[in-house]
Design a protein that fits this description.
Blueprint: H1 6-18, H2 27-34, H3 39-61, H4 68-77, H5 84-93, H6 98-106, H7 108-111
Helix pairs in contact: 2-5, 3-4, 5-6
Length: 112
């Protein structure tokens, strides 16, 4: 048997799994793994996005169409390991809050 630690072996196995074609169907999950987000960081991110999505639905119901303030809040609270545009694209592709992610992607600051 090799002299690799359990942690090194797990990292190696994870590296191999990330190369599999099927992982491309889960771009947000792949991003979380690649950026080494902890379970706590992941949970905080998902709670943030859920909150923003609820705000988006409420504001849409009230006729408010500009999602820029929600994007500013998202970017401001996003974990430093994650890049905003890549995270939004990955969330959308994996099917998380597609209506909000589509609105974010339509904003000029994200488009450009």
């Amino acid at each position: 048997m090799g002299s690799e630690s359990g942690s090194d072996l797990a990292k190696f196995h994870l590296h191999l799994l990330l190369k599999m074609k099927e992982i491309d169907q889960y771009p947000f999950t792949k991003l979380v793994i690649e950026k080494d987000l902890s379970q706590t960081e992941y949970t905080q991110l998902m709670e943030l996005i859920d909150y923003l999505h609820k705000q988006y639905l409420l504001q849409t119901e009230e006729g408010f169409l500009d999602v820029t303030p929600l994007l500013v809040q998202f970017v401001g609270m996003l974990h430093y390991k994650l890049e905003p545009k890549a995270t939004i694209i990955a969330l959308k592709k994996e099917g998380f809050y597609p209506s909000l992610m589509n609105k974010f992607l339509q904003l000029p600051i994200i488009k450009g």
